Amino acid sequence: MYSYLVEFLGAAFFIYVIFATGNPLAIGAALALTILLTSQISGGHLNPAVTIAMASAGKLPVSEVLPYCMAQIFGGLTALQLYKRYQF
Known about the structure:
The chain is mainly alpha-helical. It has helices at about 1-20, 25-40, 50-55, 65-85. Helix 1 packs antiparallel against helix 2 (about 25-40) and helix 1 (about 1-20) packs parallel to helix 4. The protein is globular.
């Protein structure tokens, strides 16, 4: 369960930086930081496409694909709502 929370928060942070800045350097730094912080806990996928690819490669149990993808999608949707609510 902890790994799903980490994927949710990591995806939310990363997507929020994309919305808030649009700056390629900030986006790259956010992605690097998020992967660095989450890789030991959840694998640092942060993206449903990466999760599916890792499961296809046998590096993630297939039973984990749906929960990971849902956490990542909800993280992205949360980031969108935060951005819409607090944009200046």
